[in-house]
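User: Predict the full complex structure for these chains.
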Amino acid sequence: MFCSELYVKRISKYYRRIRQLRDNGVQRVSSEELAKHMKLSPSQVRTDLGKFCLGQSGYGYNVVELARELEKLIGIDKIVKLILIGVGKVGQALLNYSSLHDTGFHFVAAFDINPIIKGKRIGYLKEPVKSIRELASFLETNPVDIAVLAIDQESIQSVTDILVRGGVKGIWNFAPCYPLVPEEVVLENVHIQESLLQLSYKLT
Amino acid sequence: MFCSELYVKRISKYYRRIRQLRDNGVQRVSSEELAKHMKLSPSQVRTDLGKFCLGQSGYGYNVVELARELEKLIGIDKIVKLILIGVGKVGQALLNYSSLHDTGFHFVAAFDINPIIKGKRIGYLKEPVKSIRELASFLETNPVDIAVLAIDQESIQSVTDILVRGGVKGIWNFAPCYPLVPEEVVLENVHIQESLLQLSYKLT
DNA sequence: TAGATTGTTAATCGATTAACAATC
DNA sequence: TAGATTGTTAATCGATTAACAATC
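Assistant: Here is the predicted structure of the four-chain assembly.
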């Protein structure tokens, strides 16, 4: 139950909402209030959050405590180190994405094949953009949690192989095709286009 | 059953895969082959596609026919007219997104508040970027299927109101907050960050 | 004909909800 | 105390699968 895709999705949604509440200075929230804003039932919210055992009868959940618990569960109670492969339009948008940075996802390096972009500093990236040729040696001395793939289809597999050999355990892929990864590596594909297809379906 | 979120998601996935097969010149595919590539059961595929009544016993599905049927179902058997609001990094990436254009999603106009970007031609956009002040009058004379929101949080609601008044029926929102829309308008939010949270959860 | 594969449906599985005793 | 709201679980609901007759 705690591994179903649907559950993981709800947990992410709770976190987004709880952070919003926390940032607005709200101190407590009931399962009823939380459910209302995300089209879920209060029962569902209680079943999901019950295992934290921090709800109080007659009161609800303490927003700060709940945020902390969700952060632990999701694994963002510490800085998560990202590297970016491919500093095109999508890559640059990600480097500038403040909410990503605020949540603790920090880009520690970015790599591109294009020499024109090499050496630039973009968005929240502290280091200048490196050449893709430096990737393998970088991974030898710098542990990385997640690699973000924002490159073209052709080089997807070869870059992925370098990442896997370099010990990267999570890959967040923006390309419309999927690289093969060993079982222990988590691959999360971002399906921008599928989301638009779903919208189109609902319109018809 | 044909409206469940899960079903809509699978239909989008079938379409992506079938197009890939078609583009590679593959003529037929069985439910078994189709299922294998997307972690579904052959039963599920047959149940989903059965209603088209174009599978043939002992043969499978004709790829070209199935693609056409899915296009009709999703509503992309014709050009879908998009407008873009907000021509920043995300907006520009979308204007350059070839697979979106190839699927029949065409940007007929783009609007931005920043005068520096006004008048530029970017990616597949044929028209120069317009000022956001022209939006309302544009909608009066140009019917649009879907508006793409790639703007900051602050202006989300006011822009959405203009779109709704202008008769836009679908909104594809990239902002991390959600505008309120009347019931008949379909709002599809793209949750980039939630997808990264899910990846992080799976890593822990 | 034999082999492959469909569409359908009853059975199974898993996820969601309703109800409620417990408790702040 | 009375009111609010929790966590738990049995009941319900909905989605997936297995099985198979039909058929190309």
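Residues 30-32, 42, 46-47, 49-51, 53, 55-61 of chain B lie near DNA strand C (CB under 10 Å from a C1').
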